[in-house]
Amino acid sequence: MRYELPEQKKLVFESLMPIRWGDMDAMGHMNNTAYFRYMESVRIDWMHANGCMPNPLGEGPVIVNAFCNFYKQLEYPGTVRLQMFTSNPGRTTFETWFTMEPEDQPGDIHAAGGATTIWVDFPKQKAVDLPPWMRTLVG
Known about the structure:
Layout: E1 10-18, H1 32-49, E2 59-70, E3 79-87, E4 93-102, E5 111-121, E6 126-127, H2 132-138
Antiparallel strand pairs: 1-3, 2-5, 3-4, 4-5, 5-6
């Protein structure tokens, strides 16, 4: 099965991650929860690289929805290539998309997921407009 990303997406980050033995489940393939941890790790690395880590005393990103579709098993040992895309900046939100493929099988998407991210004023506990620099980064 070939995974198709939404049309107006922007590749913003790529990372290689080794599959760890502890990521496996009783069936010998990567546990479904590990896929979400991999997406989280790439998202945090991207945020850190772009200076947009959450500030508990200010503003920052919060995930409000996340999903993952599983097409083929990822297995230990191996290395996963994760690509992160962004799209659809709204007033307070933007979308992130992820693809996961074995490093030694370029283009063979084994899983794909995404998340909706909202920009929040943490002290007020409410959504606020995306800063212009973030809108440019994700749009």
